[in-house]
Amino acid sequence: MSDAVEGRYFREVLGHFPTSVVAITTTDSDRQPRGMIVGTFMSVSLEPPLVSFLVDGSSNTLRTIRTAGRFCANALAGNQERLSRRMAGGPNRFEGTEWEESPLGNPVLAGIVAWVDCTVEKIVELGDHQLVVGQVRTLRVESMKTPLLFFRGGYGDYLSSAGLLLDRLVGW
């Protein structure tokens, strides 16, 4: 990081950019589920269909994804904050979590908004993180629930009607 930008301040300012909360899942060689939470999931390309996310280079789940060559991105719903916190760290990330196997063999979590099943296209080292790019193989919308978001250090959900209400209150 540049000497001109202090780490804590950098995180504080970037915390004002809302991010989606996505559970990245895979299975290990024993078919046991593995996963982590990311706030950087994004579309990269339509042709071919590519998506990506950033992950700390020391992540155990990243090592499993490298070995498996596949992952599933699960868009968490607004009511899944507890699941997000559990999957963000600790040894029992899937304890009490219902899931089904995707066509590629990755966990698709119950109650989510949507999922994207991918094979690993490329992994690029960028500072202390890795950019994982995946080729989309299958994807599906599971529900019309509002998504879970992370903003200013806390969780919340997106209510599309909030913007309409504010527009009416200000007379736009």
From TrEMBL:
State the superkingdom: Bacteria
Q: Which UniProt keywords apply?
A: Oxidoreductase
Q: According to the UniProt record, what class of enzyme is this?
A: oxidoreductase
Pfam families the UniProt entry points to: Flavin_Reduct
Natural source organism: Streptomyces hokutonensis
Organism placement in taxonomy: Bacteria, Bacillati, Actinomycetota, Actinomycetes, Kitasatosporales
Name of the protein in its database record? Flavin reductase family protein
The record's annotation in InterPro entries points to: Flavin_Rdtase-like_dom, NADH-dep_flavin_reductase, Split_barrel_FMN-bd
Report a single Gene Ontology molecular function. Answer: oxidoreductase activity
Tell me where in this chain the Flavin reductase like domain is found: 14-157
Q: What is its EC number?
A: 1.-.-.-
Question: What family classification does the UniProt entry report for this protein?
Answer: Belongs to the non-flavoprotein flavin reductase family.
